[in-house]
Amino acid sequence: MNIQTPITTNSELNTSSDQAARELGELLLHTPEYQAFLRGLNAVNNDPEVQKISAEIRSHQNTLRWSPKDAGEHETALTHLEIELEAVQAVQEYRLAEEVVCRLFAEVDAIISQAAGVPFAANARRSGCGCGG
Amino acid sequence: MLSEEFQNSARTLGEALRVTPSVQTYLQAQADCAADHEAAELDNRLLAMYQELVGRQQRGEALQRSEIDAYNTLKSQVHQNPLVRERDTALILVKQTCLEIADELNFPLGMEFAALALAGNV
């Protein structure tokens, strides 16, 4: 099967797709959803309760890493702290904003992928597996 | 529902990605695989076996060593097929192109678009 689509050169790739990507990035940046997500992230990072719980989490993680004695005790403490962290209001608000942004980005990705003929996000992830399926 | 401006912008990016040499090569290789009886059959068998094993594992079932060996044997058989190999090599280049484009998209956002988009698909 021959696919009749004009092929671009690498220099054209740099101008057309890079420019299209930058424009889309700018559009997404200015959406109310993304702005709410950034505000939520900022609120979480500056929340004293989050900072306190995060410091405790890091302390248990360090203990586990360097002296894994009583690992079970530290793992239980970590589980409790993670539950405590998720219960903080700033974190809950951030999670909601994150969910909205993820859904928005998934919709955008579906359009990119459909037009491209290959899954975009799955192949553009810095970590994890990409597949052509 | 996304606004028309977003839909157009996302479509423009997708179309620009589609005409890149790597995606064109991949789509051609994928079409060649699908058109070849042996390659398509091997591909389908591998996918079916993978889905069955993963499904059982997710339901908490322990897989037999012989089943994993059978899967790995089929996998290496599939990858010996020249059309499949060509397609898989092309996919590596598609990934490289997508990563380069994603860098441009991520820059204004200050975050990884792909990670957030994939989380939204769950």
* Beta-strand residue fraction of chain B: under 5%
Largest interface, Cβ cutoff 8 Å:
A-B, 55 and 53 residues
H/E element sequence of chain B: HHHHHH
Quantity of strands of chain B, as a count: 0
Summarize the structure in words.
The complex is a heterodimer of chains A (133) and B (122). Chain A is mainly α and 133 residues long. Chain A has helices spanning 10-29, 32-46, 48-66, 71-87, 89-116, 120-124. In chain A, α2 runs antiparallel to α5 (89-116). Chain A is elongated. The model of chain A is unreliable at 1-7 and 129-133 (pLDDT under 50). With 122 residues, chain B is mostly helical. Chain B has a single domain (4-120), classed as YheA-like fold (Up-down Bundle), CATH 1.20.1500. Chain B has 6 helices and no strands. Chain B has helices at residues 4-18, 21-35, 37-58, 65-80, 82-109, 113-120. In chain B, α2 packs antiparallel against α5 and α3 (37-58) runs antiparallel to α4 (65-80). The model of chain B has no long low-confidence stretch (mean pLDDT 94). At the A-B interface, α1, α5 and α6 of A face α1, α2, α5 and α6 of B.
Layout of helices and strands, plus pairs?
The complex is a heterodimer of chains A (133) and B (122).
Chain A: H1 10-29, H2 32-46, H3 48-66, H4 71-87, H5 89-116, H6 120-124
Helix pairs in contact in A: 2-5, 3-4
Chain B: H1 4-18, H2 21-35, H3 37-58, H4 65-80, H5 82-109, H6 113-120
Question: Main traits of this protein?
Answer:
heterodimer, A: 133 residues, mainly alpha, 6 helices, 0% strand, elongated, disordered N terminus, disordered C terminus, B: 122 residues, YheA-like fold, 85% helix, extended
Quick take:
Chain A has 133 residues and is mostly helical.
